[in-house]
C-alpha cells in the first residue's frame, strides 16, 4: 500500500501549514511507516493511505516520488 506522510523536518517544530512537507512511502501499515521514518527525527502530522482515484491523482502529479527506505 502507498501512504502519503505530512511532516515537519524537525521533531520539536510546531506544525505550520507553510512548512509542512510530504512524502510517499510504500508500507503494509501506518505503523510500518512510522517505523521506517523513526530515524529521520520528523514531526509526523498525518499519515494518509492512498488508494483508488486519489492514488491515481497523486501518481499523475510531477511531485509524486516514492521514497526508498
Molecular structure report:
There is one protein chain. With 69 residues, the protein is of the alpha+beta class. It has one domain: RNAP, epsilon subunit-like (Ubiquitin-like (UB roll)), CATH 3.10.20.730. The protein contains 2 helices and 4 strands, in the order ββαβαβ. It has a 4-stranded mixed sheet. The two termini are 14 Å apart. 7% of the residues are buried.
CATH architecture: Roll
How would you state the average pLDDT, rounded?
92
Tell me, what is the CATH class? Alpha Beta
Q: Remind me, CATH topology?
A: Ubiquitin-like (UB roll)
The CATH superfamily turns out to be: RNAP, epsilon subunit-like
Task: Kindly report the spatial arrangement of strands forming the biggest sheet.
Answer: 3-1-2-4
State the total count of DSSP E strands: 4
Globular, elongated, flat, extended or rod-shaped: what is the shape? globular
Helix content: 10-25%
Radius of gyration from the CA trace? 12 Å
Strand percentage: 25-35%
Report the uncertain regions.
Answer: none
Question: Which series of helices and strands comes N to C?
Answer: EEHEHE
